[in-house]
Amino acid sequence: MISKLLLLVFAALASAQLPAPSRIQPLINQLISSGPAASRLNRLTPQILESFIEPINVQIERNSYVYRQGAELRLNGHPWTASGANVYWLGLDENVIPPAGQPFYEPLNASYPTFGRITEIMNTLQTMGAHVIRSQTLGVSVGNPLSVMPALGVYNEQAFATIDWSIFQARQHGLRIVVPLTDNYDYYHGGKFNFLRFRGINIKSNDASKVDPMVLQFYTNATIVKDFKDYIEHLLTHVNPYTGLSYAEDPTIFAYETGNELGGPIFGDEYVPVEWTSEIAAYIKELAPHKLVVDGTYGLNQTHLAIPPIDIFSNHYYPPNTTKLLQDITQVESADKVYLVGEYDWTTQNPQRSSLDSFFGIIEARQNLARPVVAGDLFWSLFGRNVPDCGTFVNHTDGFTMQYGNPANSAEVNAQIRAIRQHFFRMRNRTVDGYLPCVACPGPAAEYTYS
Fold first, then answer.
1. Cα separation of 417 and 411, whole Å?
2. DSSP tag of 24
3. What gap in Å lies between CA 348 and CA 359, rounded to an integer?
4. Does the pLDDT of residue 52 top 80, yes or no?
């Protein structure tokens, strides 16, 4: 009986057109209406029958793609929101020196996070009510010995281990991922400056406000563009051993972002050519037709609004600014696309900030409209414990580190975390009180978590 049910479910999951959850109940009704166990199964209460359906519904959802319908994201025919956190270190970290003998690149303080750290942060996100993770190092990994691509055309398969585990654990915890593919800055995990150096253009971004105009070669040099596309292809065609799916196929990664805070020689200039954005976005769609594409320009470049393969536009808020948020939403609405707050400062340190309540209020109110436009928001940034050391929290020194559940948090910090958690649940049409539940360390690896 059960094996027959599972075969039907697996066949449905493997089909090109996944059945809506409402079609599962007739399958179960059919199976319990005949056979040697029929008399017993027919006496089961609706609650018990629902226990058959729930895990099947979850598996259908996990194996269905998020898609864009005009100015709204949808999943299985229903509106879907994208609030959560930036967890940039999942593929490669810079904040922990590992035990002797473990991979470590001292010049950049680079090391792989433990699987326990990754699992613990997924449990934290689930407890917080998040839907989405944005993580640079799941897609940006070039230029150092621990990278996916340490040198041009040279690939390090070991570097996929933490990326594979992160994607698998996100899937098992009911989370989706946005993955940027390069970075505007010269950070430890690599980015556009590495692609320039691979071709002999040796410039750096020591001054974040202005860099050598040769940086534009990343967008305009056909050879470098081809190098970047080759890297994208290797990344998206990698098959995750935990899922059996390539990154291009796995619905867990619902969107690829052309880059993180991309621009030209002057910080914030939005100088990312239309031609480059169009070519890269179209190439992502060619490799992964079901993936959404986020414009990775820092700011809203209005010349990009009409690029057909771009589904989502984004901006970053340091600090949160409701006036700017409303302006951004209005611009994207005019293009009938989706808007996502890709990063924002969740702290209270900037006196010029808009309150989180007012910032969230705009986003939540839009969910009641026929065309919400804004899909959600992702705070910067989340860290957890230094697993297997569950007594120590990992810190990052940019001033925006959130450590959910840290006993050392001030009342003010916990008030901000509480507001974010309640907002996440409201974005899922649920209401929770101000209690902050504890998160086990590292918590379950979620092989069979249904939530």
1. 10
2. H
3. 13
4. no
What residues does 123 pair with on adjacent strands? Answer: none
Of the candidates 327, 320, 345, 260, which has an alpha carbon nearest to the alpha carbon of residue 295?
260
Q: Is the N-terminal amide bond of 442 cis, ω within 30° of 0?
A: yes
DSSP-based helix, strand, coil % in the chain, nearest 5? 35, 15, 45
Q: Which pLDDT value is given to residue 47?
A: 83
User: DSSP string of 304-340?
Assistant: GTT-TT--EEEEEESS--HHHHHHHHHHHHHTT-EEE
Q: Is 427 exposed, middle or buried (CB count within 10 Å of its CB: 0-12, 13-18, 19+)?
A: buried
DSSP helix/strand/coil, 86: strand
120 is written with which tokens?
Answer: 């613990």
Measure the CA–CA gap between 413 and 78, rounded to whole angstroms.
34
Provide the token pair at 258. Answer: 């052309």
Helix (H, G, I), strand (E, B) or coil at 382: strand
Give the per-residue pLDDT at 17.
44
Higher pLDDT, 296 or 450: 296
Phi/psi at 149 (nearest 5 deg)?
-125, 90
| Tokens standing for residue 350 | 């900037």
**pLDDT band of 31, cuts 50, 70, 90:** low
| Residue that is written with structure tokens 């979620």 in the block | 446
Residue at 427: amino acid letter = M
Dihedral sign from CA coordinates of 422, 300, 345, 121: positive
Residue 208 has what pLDDT?
Answer: 59
* Mean model confidence pLDDT for the chain: 92
Question: Identity (one letter) of the amino acid at 306?
Answer: A
On whether the CB atoms of residues 125 and 383 are closer than 8 A, the answer is no
Residue 300, classed as helix, strand or coil, is coil
The upper half-sphere exposure of residue 61, i.e. CA atoms within 13 Å in the direction of its Cβ, equals 22
Apex 150 CA angle, 148 and 154, nearest 5: 85
Whether 312 shows a pLDDT value over 60: the answer reads: yes
Q: Would the CA dihedral through 62, 428, 359, 84 be positive or negative?
A: negative
Q: What is the DSSP letter of 82?
A: -
**Cα 381 to Cα 158: distance, rounded to the nearest angstrom:** 26
3-state class (DSSP) for residue 417: helix
Task: Compute CA 105 distance to the chain's CA centroid, rounded to the nearest angstrom.
Answer: 26
Q: What is the dihedral of CA 64, 66, 70, 71, to 10 degrees?
A: 150
DSSP string, 359-370: HHHHHHHHTTSS
Query: Which residue in this structure is represented by tokens 């057909």?
Result: 308
